[in-house]
Amino acid sequence: MSERRAQKGAEGGVLLVSQQFAEPRTGIGTYTRVLVDGLLDRGIPVALASWESEFPVAGHRDLAFWSLGHRPKRDRSPCSFHTFGRRVARRLAGATETFASMHFVDGREGHAVVGRAALTRVAAVCVGSVHGDYALHGPKSPFQARSAIADPRRGFWHHIGLRRLEARTLRRFDALVANSQATRSAVVDGYELDSQRCTVAPVTVAHREAAPAQLDGSPRLLFVGGSFRRKGLQAVLEALPRLRRAFPNLALHVVGRDAEQPAFERKARDLRIADAVVWHGRVDPDDCASIFAAADALVVPAHSEGLGLVHLEAFAAGVPVVAGLDGGVGEIVQDGVSGLQTLTEGAEVARAVHAILADPSLARRLVEGGRTVLASRSVDRFVDGVLGAYGFEGAEARPPAPTDLVPAAR
Question: What is the pTM of this model?
Answer without folding.
Answer: 0.87
